[in-house]
Design a protein that fits this description.
heterodimer, A: about 220 residues, alpha/beta, Glutaconate Coenzyme A-transferase, ten-stranded mixed beta sheet, three-stranded mixed beta sheet, 4 helices, 13 strands, B: about 230 residues, eight-stranded mixed beta sheet, three-stranded antiparallel beta sheet, 6 helices, about 25% strand
Amino acid sequence: MKKLDRKQIAARLARDIPDGATVNLGIGLPTLVADYLPKDREIVLHSENGVLGIGPRPAPGAEDEDLINAGKEPVTMLKGGAFFHHADSFGMIRGRHLDYCVLGAFQVSVQGDLANWHTGAPDAIPAVGGAMDLAVGAKHVLVMMEHLSKEGTSKIVERCTYPLTGARCVNRIYTDLAVIDVKADGLHVVETVDGLSFEELQRLTGVPLKRLATAA
Amino acid sequence: MIDKFIASAAAALADVPDGATVMIGGFGNAGMPAELIDALIAQGAKALTIVNNNAGNADAGLAALIGAKRVNKILCSFPRQTDSWHFDKAYRAGELELELVPQGTLAERIRAAGAGIGAFYTPTAYGTRLAEGKEARRIGRRDYVLEYPIHADYALIKADRADRWGNLTYRMTARNFGPIMAAAARITVAQVRETVPLGELDPEIVVTPGIFVQRVVRIAPLRKAA
């Protein structure tokens, strides 16, 4: 089996973002997706701190501390971009104006519940940022994560044991092993990596998976 | 005659009392009113409630205010950062109350205060720990959580240009919380890079109208070494 590395997961996800889409990439792993968006598509990146139309990273020395993304990294602007305040930015999110958001996850449940903001440890300092707004607001919520935890257990679970970010909000999961759709009747495997059978994926994942009707 | 220009950050914050609720703009360093925060630290007001997206980082600004034990409570969405050690220490020691608010709910609660809204229902956080104990309601086919506005005594924000009526423009993503905090506070103090004569700002490009701004302090940007 050829597991995907983080860049390969990002590249696989990027292929599914259509021309004309407006997309928010969560901080951390999802930010990688920006590097793989197909160049022949016009895709508008949103960041919750108040910007649409984010371009590539600035050249070294060309950073401007007033021009950053939600991860507080320096960015550039594309032609056609716009700035707006925080209430407008989250109005775009909650108001269902964003086509896609990409979030990392600790766990996703079979119903599409998402846990990605809190480990639940009693001494952990909680921080939520915009994750709960993105989870309820984007038209399509895409999750990008490793399939298994460091301990080797599936991060796709019957019920999330970590505190929820949003209930029944995830539409599609991209992992280092597979692409899986979350539908009303359960989890549908869209594809698996080379050398990984449906049966083996099912064994590793634990919760019931369905073969996508169109897949062999 | 209306003249909101104040000679110094210290003079602009001289009347902040103990126990005040103070909104502080900025997201990262963008829009962070660093000199106003320094002036608040020097001024000495304590038992403050602070509203900011974060809870300070490294040793300057809001982190220094927390480190000086001047903050009783903080409302924010993302306190934990790799260098938020002043917050972490005070929080773990139980010296600081945290109200964790999802970022969009934080923004909308601030906006609601400035817009005279009594409360609102938002879908964000429904079914999560952050909605526990809050009134929920199903409207149409979605579930919502009731949230109340956040008013403030003061807002400290950073803008780009201002005239003496307090009209403001911003620079790129430094805009972030500035416009909504300006409207939500009884007294809004804006630090700006440049002050201009009345009439210089095209009304079409004013982002925060002066009605929301009470005091303006010009803070010349540090010149970068050549």
